[in-house]
Amino acid sequence: MKRVICLFSALLLLFLSACGDTTGEPTATPEPTVTPEATATPEPTPEPTPEPIREPLTGLPCEEDLSGARPVAIMLNNLKAALPQQGNSQADIIYEVLAEGGITRMLAVYQHPERVGLIGSVRSARQYYWELAQGHDAVYIHAGASPEFYETKSRLGLFTVDGVNGRFSGNGTFWRDRDRIAGHHYAVEHSLLTSGETIAAMLTKEEKTAHTEGYRYEMAFAEEVTPTGGQNAVTVTVPFSNYKSGVFRYDPATKLYAVEEYGQPYIDGNDNTQVAVTNLLVLQTTCTVVDDKGRITVDLSSGSGWFACGGKMAPITWQKGDANQQLRYFQEDGSPLTLGVGKSYVCIIPTNRTVTAE
Questions:
Q1: d(Cα 239, Cα 230) in Å, to the nearest integer?
Q2: How many Cβ atoms sit within 10 Å of the Cβ of residue 263?
Q3: What is the C-alpha separation between 250 and 253, in angstroms, rounded?
Q4: In whole angstroms, what is the distance from residue 106 CA to residue 97 CA?
Q5: CATH class of the domain whose range is 72-357
Q6: Using an 8 Å Cβ cutoff, are 105 and 96 in contact?
C-alpha cells in the first residue's frame, strides 16, 4: 500500500510540472526600448562686423569717435621769402586762396594739433578764410587781420586766437624765430611760430575742444574713388594769378597727388616732407579787389569746379551759403560727391583762370 501512495505522489508531481503556471494570467511582454532621435545643434548666428570709426576730416580709421572734437584752422604765410612753411604736411585739409596782389595764403585744418610740431609762419586773417574755418566749426588761429575781419570779430564777439593783437599775443602761445629753419634768416613778418602741442594745451585751458552743439561734419569718404566720367589727370596745373600757380602730380604707387609751387616741391620745413594728398578740389568763383592794398573779397556762396582723385579729374559744382555753413560738393548729376579716404587740398581761384590736366 505504501508503494502505491508513493507512486501516486510521484505521478501527481510530474503532472503539475507539465502544466506549468496554473494562475491563468498572461505573461507580460517587455516594452521595446525607444532611442530618441538626435537633434541637430543650430549654428550660432554670426555677430555683424561693426563699422570702423572714421576720422571726420579724412575718413581714415581711428580708435575713438572724434565727431564732437573741434579742429583748428591756422593761417600760413606763402610768400616765396617765407618758405618753407612748417607743419603743413600734417594738415588734414589745406585751403589755398588769393590774399592780395596775386599772392596766396593757406588755411591749414588739423584734427589733431597735438601731433604736429612747429607750425608757421603764421600770418593775418581775411574774412573768407574765417568763413572757411567756420564751415568746420574750427578754432581760427591767425596773426593780425584785415580791417574787414576785425570789424566782424568785434561785431559778433568772436573767439579767435590772434598772435599779434589781444591776450594770446604775449602769453607764450606764439613766439618769433628769425632763424626758425637752419640755413635761413627771415624778415620779422615771416618769423611768427606756434606749435601743435602749445595750441592743444591752450584750447584745453580755454575749454574750446568740443564742437558747438549740433555740429557734425557731413563729408562722405570711400576707398578707391574715381571721378565719374573723369579725364586723365596725372598732372594738374591750377593758376591762382600771374604770380602763383599750383602743380599736382599723381603718383600711382602712393595714389597721392604730390604738390609743387614756384617750380619746386611744396615741402614741410620741419622734416622736408613733400605735401601729398588724396583729393584735389578746385573751386572757381568771383574774387573782387576792395581796397588800395589789393585786398579782395571771395564769393563763397556757390559755383563750379573740378575734382581730381586717383589720376582722374571731373567737373563738379559746389555751394556753401552763409559763413556758418559747410562747403558741399556735387557731381554733375547733382548727387553728393564722395571723397577718397585721405587728405584734401582745396584751391579757390578766380573764374577767369583755366585749370589744365594731362
A1: 20
A2: 7
A3: 9
A4: 7
A5: alpha beta
A6: yes
